[in-house]
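Q: How would the structure tokens look for this protein?
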Amino acid sequence: EVQLVESGGGLVQPGGSLRLSCAASGFTFDDYDMSWVRQAPGKGLEWVSTISWNGGSTYFAESMKGRFTISRDNAKNTLYLQMNSLKSEDTAVYYCNVQLTQAVGVWGQGTQVTVSS
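A: Here is the predicted structure in token form.
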């Protein structure tokens, strides 16, 4: 069974940092690009970042550039998102995602990030 399990969310003050993790199982992790996507309260899904299968290429939404870092450890089948200089508008549920085929995408259950003083 393909499974993605996020962790590392929580409550943080503006300007603070968090590192999210996504543990993957049930598929060959290093065959696939991986992504983070978020959903803020009352809003739709927003793409955050993508990393290539070998970590050689990374891509970020404009508002995250310079603040967020995506990485992966293929030996541990784990994806990470380091978030720095957090803002209230970063409050959202963060999901990791893998697109196994053009038609088949898998999502984790999400981890809540709340940025508030």
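Residues 29 and 77 are 6 Å apart (CA to CA).

The radius of gyration is 13 Å.

Upvote if useful.
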